[in-house]
Amino acid sequence: MSSPISAWSHASQERVQTILDSYPEPRSAIMPLLYIASLEHDRVSPEAMRQVAELTGVTPAQVASVASFYTMFKRDGVGEYLVSVCTSISCFLRGADDVLEVVEDATGARRGETSSDGTFTVEHVECIGSCGGAPAVQVNYELIEGVSTDNGRKLVAWLKDTKPQVVLADEMQQLFGGSRSFDWGGPEPEGAIAPVPAFGPYGSSGEGR
Amino acid sequence: MTDLILTARMTAHPADSHMIDRFVATGGYSALRKALTELTPEEVKDEVKASNMRGRGGAGFPTGVKWGFLAASEPRYLVVNGDESEPGTFNDRQLMERDPHQLVEGIAISSYALGIGHAFVYIRGEYPRSARRVQRAIEEAYAAGYLGDGILGTDFSLDVTVHLGGGAYICGEETALLNSLEGRRGEPRLKPPFPAVEGLYAKPTIVNNVESISNVPWIVNNSGTSYAAIGPERSAGTKMLSISGHINKPGNHEIIMGMTWRDMIYDLGGGIPDDRALKTWIPGGASAPWFVPEEHLDTILSIDDVAANGSMIGAGAVVVMDETTNVVAAAHRIVRFFAHESCGQCTPCREGTRWLEDVLKRILDGRGRPEDIDLLLDISDNISPGLSWPPAMTTICPLGPSAVSPVTSITRWFLPEIEAMIAGGGDSDG
């Protein structure tokens, strides 16, 4: 029987089996597999959902019902860098709306949109648990706390200029961050290779692809 | 101040408190060894029950009592709730990133006590660093024989799986979390049946918060009665508080409850920037009704005292707002959150939160009508009849009623300000 994911990278194919093995029921693997599939397809495409359905023994419609419930499964695709600006209450009180505006200006993408060259998608997000280091921004879910408007602008310029293959929270915090919710401890070598949370078992810079 | 429980290691060893070598060198996994070699599962459960620890995720139900409800059939599961998403809360994130082995040790001890062979840690998708550190701790623990088959030479075996969320606040509600972990939409289930009887895959399941489980190693090492002796009688132990907003020292603080709010804000929190006046604060996350200085500065910070004053400690998020705050804009921001995060199952929540958001927005935009205040309260009453505390519900879960809290807070404490905004044509900052 041919595998539905024979076109996926070897690393991704190996991860699929590990993930399926770590749950008592295969359906539980839908969310992790959607993350891996979106690395392979650059978004949660209909084809990605069909593959995940086949791997977990459910229908594509059931996978779609899951994918559409959660904001982090991007069915429409996003730019190389997903810039998420928190505008929930604590960040709002600390000036997050101004940070969002400078990020929109610097990227050329309004909230919910992707820049014309495909480099940036900008979104405003609800609380990302960084209230003690407000305002907070994530790039491909890697965090920067204490972001001033000035540094928000510089962050976007830096992403444009250097086009990092791997986005590292420690590096961005050092360059563009301010006060943090707490000492992060560190250093942390793993970072994001795509707009998907950098978590080793689902794929990240630390594991290759 | 007694010695800190949860943050002692990360305070003493900020660079490497998350690494197994540091953990073991500072007494880590000694509680697991003690539990497995000196105590029966029943004895461990008795210690946790004697601690009087109340669940740290927000509801405040005693953890030991919850454990007592676990049905006997097998398999059984432990699910650790690391889906911390309540606006203002970031203390579980610190516990997962700075002392993940403390959590893993708590998981292993709790699973031994409850006769569980497979535990899950559900971590919100926006916390990749938390997930990485917990995953690394799990891998280190397997390699060192603290997880896996035949732990520490006993016949107790345990597997632990980290599961990443997908960006949905509602998955912090335990039955929504279980649906999500099963690979479904994160929609809360009707209770009963409670998870302890029919939880993950309809099997008996205990769902506990990260902070609750992180306390278990200390309780086993020092006894439940020692834990119960810390702090006020019905708010035993320490509590992680997340402080944010207009405050000089934002961050997490591990406290012993029983202080006044005045001490919390002006001593622990360092007061308000530029000595501006305190206007209001949220004592327990976005879902909680607000406190005001005229009424509550000398209220005691304990689970029961805050509840008696019509609000809650919740997961421990304090959001401070100074005199410059536009309270309608702040309330709108919180209501918008709940409208965005409503799962859509229940009409009063799905429709009501959106109505509340729209009406607050039009007041901010200068299109408010005098009758909008009554309209806000009427919509609120449809979501949570009687507008009482704790809230009555017309919904499966408390998300809808949570959206009512900021609305009733501003109409109760800042009515003239809303009326003035409606009369004066709004405020462009919203």
Please give a handful of descriptors for the protein shown:
heterodimer, A: 209 residues, alpha+beta, Arc Repressor Mutant, subunit A, 2 domains, five-stranded mixed beta sheet, 39% helix, elongated, B: 430 residues, alpha/beta, Rossmann fold, de novo design (two linked rop proteins), 3 domains, four-stranded parallel beta sheet, four-stranded mixed beta sheet, 11% strand
Description:
The complex is a heterodimer of chains A (209) and B (430). Chain A has helices at residues 10-21, 30-41, 46-56, 60-67, 89-93, 96-107, 149-162, 169-176; strands spanning 81-86, 113-114, 120-125, 137-139, 142-144. In chain A, helix 1 (10-21) packs antiparallel against helix 2 (30-41). In chain A, strand 4 (137-139) and strand 5 (142-144) form a beta hairpin. Chain A folds into 2 domains: 10-67, Orthogonal Bundle (Arc Repressor Mutant, subunit A); 81-181 and 191-198, Glutaredoxin. The radius of gyration of chain A is 18 Å and the shape is elongated. Helices cover 39% and strands 10% of the residues of chain A. With 430 residues, chain B is α/β, with parallel strands linked by helices. Helices cover 44% and strands 11% of the residues of chain B. The radius of gyration of chain B is 22 Å and the shape is globular. At the A-B interface, helix 2 and helix 5 of A face helix 6, helix 8, strand 3, strand 5 and strand 8 of B.
In terms of topology, how is this protein built?
The complex is a heterodimer of chains A (209) and B (430).
Chain A: H1 10-21, H2 30-41, H3 46-56, H4 60-67, E1 81-86, H5 89-93, H6 96-107, E2 113-114, E3 120-125, E4 137-139, E5 142-144, H7 149-162, H8 169-176
Parallel strand pairs in A: 1-3
Antiparallel strand pairs in A: 1-4, 2-3, 4-5
Helix pairs in contact in A: 1-2, 2-3, 3-4, 6-7
Chain B: H1 8-12, H2 20-25, H3 30-38, H4 41-50, H5 63-68, E1 77-82, H6 91-98, H7 100-114, E2 118-123, H8 128-143, E3 159-164, H9 174-181, E4 205-209, H10 210-222, H11 224-228, E5 238-245, E6 251-256, H12 261-268, E7 278-282, H13 293-296, H14 303-308, E8 317-322, H15 327-341, H16 347-364, H17 372-383, H18 399-413, H19 415-424
Parallel strand pairs in B: 1-2, 1-4, 2-3, 5-8
Antiparallel strand pairs in B: 5-6, 7-8
Helix pairs in contact in B: 3-7, 3-10, 4-7, 6-7, 6-8, 7-8, 7-10, 15-16, 15-18, 16-17, 16-18, 17-18
